[in-house]
Amino acid sequence: MNTLLASRGSRFARLSRVAAAVAFCASGAGCSRDERGATSLRVLAAASLGDVVGELAAGSGEEEEVSAGASGALRRQIELGTGCDVFISADPLHVDALIASGLLLGDTRTVLARNRLVVVFHEGQSTDAVARLMSPQCRRIAIGNPEYVPAGRYARQALEAAGVWEELQGKLVLTDDVRQAAAHVALGTVDAAVVYQSDAVQLEKCVAAELPDAAHQPIMYVGAVHRAAADPDRASAFLRRIAADEAAAIWRKHGFIPVVGGSP
Q1: What is d(CA 15, CA 84) in angstroms, rounded to the nearest whole number?
Q2: Same domain assignment for residues 95 and 27
Q3: What does the pLDDT look like over 61-73, one tens digit per residue?
Q4: Tens digits of per-residue pLDDT, 186-211?
Q5: Domain that includes residue 226, residue range
Q6: pTM across the whole model
């Protein structure tokens, strides 16, 4: 189903630079102290969550430090010893793998929201997404690297289901996270990008066409508490709060589909 997504104002500047570098304390513990001495809860979140989790954290009255990046890259950092209190992934497999290895606490696993996959075109009319990707006029297509970017993996699944993945190889521009793919199409350095609906609603003057949900695995954002969290109860409370009914309006505002209560 094709749809023209309305502009949400000039918020693209926040899209293109979501926390490129993440600072961590040498001890590997989660909570850190800011310059005022207050304890800060550290949250590592999927790149597409930078805005919404930042807003949810800002409205809490708590000290929370949100760092965003590709889910696969963040998982790898945790496996290498990076400290955090909460990890939120755009792909459940990363959280589940860390639970299986004992790095995250399984009883804190929380489903927070869902998303949809769309193709965003820099200009033109909303038409059949796959046909337009295949056209000679569409020369460069940005997607997250499927090796570690969930949006890229979902994109690959959808394009494989459409039978065009191999034919599009020469057009693909692989990015380090989904926000970079959105940045490329917004700037016009590519003709199209496969991103989340939550990214597309923040782009001005871009036309988006939805890809069928059945063409890829369900897009779910799942969080859990790190086993070495400085305050596991506080970290668990953070997940419960952003999964609560009161947070649903903020999730929707940013283009997500909230999952109230944290159940699948």
Answers
A1: 23
A2: yes
A3: 677 899 999 999 9
A4: 999 999 999 999 999 888 777 888 88
A5: 12-114+219-258
A6: 0.80
